[in-house]
Amino acid sequence: MTPTGLTSTRDHQDLSRLMALMTGDEKHGPAATSTLDALWVLYDRVLRVAPESSGAAGRDRFLLSKGHGPMAYYAVLAAKGFFGEELLTGFGSYDSPLGHHPDRMLVPGAEIGSGSLGHGLPLAVGTVLGLRAQGLTDPRVWVLIGDAELDEGSNHEAIAYAGPAGLEQLHTVVIDNASATYGWPGGIASRFEAAGWSAETVDGRDHEALYKAFTAPHTGRPRAVVARVEPKNA
Predict the structure, then answer these.
(1) How far apart are CA 101 and CA 84, in angstroms?
(2) Is a pLDDT exceeding 90 seen at residue 69?
């Protein structure tokens, strides 16, 4: 199964136009734009999933935990052909499947419903365990969380479990836009490393740096990539 980028008819330059189609209140603009580059690199070059394989048992799973700013997510899914771009103009309206929080029952390609912070990483841990129970050790599970979500204890329980359990299929992208209430000596990556994860911090706007970090080997350990972007209130 190949990454979606091999069959895409749109490129990164088209994302600004796609995002501009989504108008209205409650867009959570900074939450959306902070994730745009990481999402694009994942769907364009890393994730082994496409519209035609979105129900295949061997697909990679991507879970958007940072679901309260889904505009970039919707733009990338549209660019990759999971649904038509005409849906973007109805973003957030009563009869649109594209809500302010993604709904996995309505949004083609969405693996989970999200928006309530702190749930995505525990769900990703459970997804890996479920795949293992089925003998599926090849699919990779990716989850994107925000740095402020690390204020939630549920994430720390998931981090503490996944490292010693050796959940190599698990990959976490942390978007760091300096919105967390608390910090950690040595930075966010050090929190994961202390629990036995492979972790790295990169420029969240540098596509090559993101790609290298996303594809770095981490035998026997889960992987965390902290993508630093401009501060939320800058």
Answers:
(1) 19
(2) no
> What does the alpha-carbon distance between residue 9 and residue 149 come to, in Å, rounded to a whole number?
34
150 three-state secondary structure:
helix
Distance in angstroms (rounded) separating the CA atoms of residues 148 and 169: 24
Residue 160: the pLDDT is 97
- CA torsion 10-67-179-163 (nearest 10°) is -100
User: In angstroms, what CA-CA distances link 103 with 8, 31, 108, 166?
Assistant: 24, 17, 9, 30
pLDDT digits 0-9 by tens, 33-45: 899 999 999 999 9
pTM, entire model: 0.91
At 76-91, the pLDDT tens digits run 999 999 999 999 999 9
Handedness of CA 214, 215, 217, 221 (dihedral sign): positive
Task: Classify 7 in phi/psi space as left (phi over 0), alpha (psi -120 to 50) or beta.
Answer: alpha
Give 82-116 as a DSSP string.
Answer: SS-GGGGGGTTSTT-S--SS--TTTSTT--S---S
